[in-house]
Design goal:
The chain has 324 residues and is an alpha/beta fold. It has 15 helices and ten strands. It has two domains: 216 residues, Rossmann fold; 97 residues, 3-Layer(aba) Sandwich (Rossmann fold), CATH 3.40.50.1100. The protein is globular and about 55 Å long. The N and C termini lie far apart (47 Å).
Length: 324
């Protein structure tokens, strides 16, 4: 255990009044006959249905009041927008969200119902981010990035703070590995940074869809590069990485292992949990489950956590998962 608190330790105390302490539940299904334990960190049960509330809360609570009063600008494919809008409503901060034209109508309606103003960008999620940053600079309003921000990353890392606390409460003194789906790198960056100090023996396993693995290729290249993308069920992790993102170097340092999974493996993981546990998870969470299943033999007899990062499933994906 480290002597000095990590940024995520401080963030956890700051955001506690605004977020749920989500369950860490055992999965006998995934543990199978491995002789170990598989624990699911149920961020799909967070108030907004995803972990993003943590980073948004930490960032917005960290802003000086006079800055926050000008209003917040953000960009998102859905979950981050819902998180920023929710925290904005709780704190009385005006929120403007830039979204890709590809955003699902149900998510668009959800964001608007939370009181945020939506601005649609004719392009992908990365272009929406770039447009939002430009507008923030032009108007002098704070920009809340989905991942490229130290306070956001620290907020996402509170998942790891809770996991270690909950393991202690359950009488478990060792976490051998944690599986996390990766998009821009904010979640795994925050989790990994906390664990490297507080539980350095824990293997941090990054899980990517083969079809959408921008940060994986950037880490391999040692620089932010353009990476071709194919459609994926993991819509929450899709999209390129912003130039100059702090998550590139951070993830290079904290990720111990990377696993790429196919669309068939993502769908099979989501279907397994639905059919066996009646647990409906979004594609990004299924990526982490699929990553675990692909490497399960390596974790026999070990205590492993899987971050169920979200449960906001698009109707078309839900139909695929529930297909008999």
């Amino acid at each position: 255990m480290g002597c000095m608190p990590t940024p995520s330790t401080a963030a956890e105390r700051r955001i506690r009044p605004l977020i749920r302490l989500t369950p860490l539940s055992q999965s006998l299904l995934l543990a199978g006959n491995s002789g170990g334990q598989v624990l699911l960190k149920r961020e799909d049960l967070q108030e907004t249905g995803a972990f993003k509330l943590r980073g948004a809360a930490n960032k917005m609570l960290s802003l000086p009041k006079e800055q926050a009063a000008r209003g917040i600008i953000a960009a998102s494919t859905g979950n981050h927008a819902i998180a920023v809008s929710t925290i904005g409503r709780k704190l009385g901060i005006p929120v403007e969200i830039f979204v890709s034209e590809k955003l699902h109508e149900l998510k668009r309606a959800k964001i608007e119902s939370l009181g945020a103003r939506l601005r649609t960008v004719a392009g992908d999620a990365l272009l929406a981010e770039q447009t939002a940053r430009h507008e923030a600079g032009r108007t002098g309003r704070p920009y809340v990035s989905p991942y490229n921000d130290a306070e956001v990353v620290a907020g996402q890392g509170t998942v790891a703070v809770e996991v270690l606390d909950q393991l202690r409460e359950q009488g478990v003194d060792r976490l051998d590995a944690i599986f996390v789906a990766v998009g821009g790198g904010g979640l795994i960056g925050g989790i990994g940074a906390h664990l490297k100090k507080e539980s350095p023996h824990t293997q941090v396993v990054a899980c990517w869809p083969e079809n959408s693995r921008a940060l994986y290729e950037c880490i391999r290249a040692g620089a932010i590069i353009d990476v071709p993308e194919e459609p994926t069920l993991s819509t929450s992790t899709a999209g390129g990485v912003e130039e100059g993102s702090i998550t590139l170097e951070l993830c290079r340092r904290v990720i111990d292992r990377s696993v790429l999974v196919s669309e068939a493996e993502i769908l099979a993981a989501a279907r397994l949990l639905w059919r066996s546990e009646k647990m409906l998870i979004e594609g990004a969470a299924a990526v982490a489950v699929a990553g675990f299943l692909k490497t399960a033999a390596d974790n026999a007899g070990k205590t492993v956590a899987i971050v169920m990062c979200g449960g906001n499933v698009d109707p078309a994906v839900e139909a695929l998962i529930k297909e008999s």
